[in-house]
Amino acid sequence: QTPVWAAPLDGKLVVFTLKDSFKVRRIGRNPKVRVAKCNVSGKLLGPWLDGSCVIVTDKEHEKRAYAALTAKYGLM
Q1: CA proximity to 14, closest of 59, 67, 60, 50
Q2: pTM for this model (two decimals)
Q3: Averaged pLDDT in 10-residue chunks for the chain of 76 residues
């Protein structure tokens, strides 16, 4: 269980993490994920949901993802 920055985009959820993080390496091997709403310290605030994840490599999509995260959280 690791809290991450996440925001809605095109009916999906975009998540920010560093490119060299273990999370990214794990997603490269297995795209299955479970997400749940939580507070900043990781306390669960909702049910777990199953999904799949892809690593964004398209620069235009990456810009839109950053814009969605900035709209939700402000400057990061």
Answers
A1: 67
A2: 0.79
A3: 89 90 92 92 93 93 95 83
Give me 71's structure tokens.
Answer: 């709209």
For residues 12 and 38, give the distance between their C-alpha atoms in angstroms, rounded to a whole number: 17
Strand partners, 44: 38
| Contact indicator for 65, 73 with CB cutoff of 8 Å | no
Q: Quick one: three-class SS letters along the chain?
A: CCCCEEEEECCEEEEECCCCCHHHHHHHHCCEEEECCECCCCCECCCCEEEECCCCCCHHHHHHHHHHHHHHHCCC
- Residue corresponding to tokens 């990061």: 76
| Tokens representing residue 53 in the block | 């994840």
